[in-house]
Amino acid sequence: MAALSGWKQLVVALAIAGVLMVIIRLAGVPGAWAPLVIGGALGLMTAVVAGAPGRDES
Q: Which UniProt keywords are listed (predicted)?
């Protein structure tokens, strides 16, 4: 996903959030918890896409 342009990354992230919302609803998660679950999942996706922080070799 990191190789995609900014707009494509946004579209993919929103599509994944939509899929997560469907899965959350099917799993029976209460509506009040859904934003927390989606936020956590998107936060983990951000960490996976960004990768580990590199060392500053200056």
A: Membrane, Transmembrane, Transmembrane helix
From the centroid of its chain, how far is CA 37?
A: 10
pTM of the model: 0.53
Write the single-letter amino acid at 2.
A
At 52, the amino acid letter reads A
pLDDT at 56 over 70: no
Tell me how far apart the alpha carbons of residues 52 and 5 are, in angstroms, rounded to a whole number. Answer: 20
* pLDDT value for 6: 77
Kindly compute the dihedral angle of the four CA atoms of residues 47, 13, 38, 34, in this order, to the nearest 10 degrees. 180
